[in-house]
Design a protein that fits this description.
The chain has about 220 residues and is of the alpha/beta class. It has 8 helices and 13 strands. It has 2 domains: about 120 residues, 3-Layer(aba) Sandwich (Rossmann fold), CATH 3.40.50; about 100 residues, Winged helix-like DNA-binding domain superfamily/Winged helix DNA-binding domain (Arc Repressor Mutant, subunit A). Helix content is about 40%, strand content about 20%. α6 packs across α7 and α6 packs across α8. The longest helix has 15 residues. The two termini are about 20 Å apart. This is Response regulator transcription factor.
Length: about 220
Amino acid sequence: MHVLIVEDNTLVARGIKAGLELHGMTCDIAMHIAQAQLLMAACQFDACVLDLGLPDGDGLQLLQQWRARTLDVPVLILTARGTVEDKVLGFQTGGDDYLAKPFDLPELVVRLQALHRRAAGRASDWQQWPALRLNLATHEAFVHEQPVELSRREWALLGALLQANGRVLTPVQLHDRLYGFEQDVGSNTVNVHVHNLRKKLGAELIDTVRGLGFRLGASYCKDMA
């Protein structure tokens, strides 16, 4: 899951980022509205954690602008504004979930996972095929009921391909999902992770579309609901 964290407190933002990455998520941080707008336009995010008190405006204004542009990325509002009236306004403006500060990281994690699951139209975190069984929240993988260990990057790549459900993703798109917008890594890293996933879970899992990128193998595409 690729998450945009919009938070102007550096310590809080870095703490959230570190905590979410321990649970296999890829995160980018925006410290103000202008930066959030740029990142949202440049990357495809699976969810956004949005603070409201930002130095260049109110987070609700940013959310309102996104919804006016029919940007449907799930947004979890994370703020010190904790009254019922604040929560009602947050949902009415277009928020998908609301969590008041101070908060517990495990709760934030499961709320984001639930948002991601609902956005993908899935009722469960378990995905099942004849030879392969996956839990996208707990990061458990079984091939012929034998456990298989995947790295955080491999889970990020697998999650992106499953969500695309047969659509081709370019290496640049996959790079952003694995490492975030700003992290600069070698140009061959996506190919390495694709190779490792095929080796661990089966060569037919990922198709290469020459000159374009990668997609989920046809036998793994399914109605995710």
